[in-house]
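Possible regression after last week's pipeline update?

I re-ran a chain I had predicted before the update to compare outputs. Posting the input and the new output here so someone can diff against the archived version. Not blocking, just want to make sure nothing changed silently.
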Amino acid sequence: MKLLSILVILFSLFLYPQQIEAHVLKTDGSVGAVIHVSPEDDPVTRESTDFYFEFKDKEGKFIPENCDCNGIILQGGKEVYSAPLFQNSTNPSLENASFSYTFPEKDIYKVQVSGKPTTPGAFEPFTLEWDIRVARESETQAGGTTETTQGGFIDWTSKHIPHLIGAFLIAGFVIYAIIKQHVKKAGN
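New output (post-update):
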């Protein structure tokens, strides 16, 4: 029974790998924000990625209508895109800042949100930053033709190495336990 419990625990560790929490609150002074990235907090090259921000303000002074707020994408320390954060909202609020961007290639980008008051003294200027890894490639090229997933079987295997190692270890452990049990029964 102890062996079965250990196997179930080992199997569950590899079956359900831990997810990394992407929704972290970044702050600068009294203003902070949580970033949400669509699709599924995992951007894809050559496909539109939507960025949504939920702002928090400890002092209650931050009002979107009084903010010159921008979303900026940096690649290798250089600005490659900038857009107003509340451009898509007819009724700006702390929960509906957003912009979209299409990443041209796989890389680690920096998403920066900056804001300065349009009314003097309304709130302190702020800058918030998140690192975004773009590791997936689009399955369709710009011309609409489908491209082969990079590496096919090799790509799938590299993504599932922890699962495969775990499965081989568990299978080896089970085979060892069965053989040991048969040897023990044969000895009696």
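Follow-up from reviewer: compared with the archived run. The first strand starts at residue 25 and ends at 28. Marking as no regression found.
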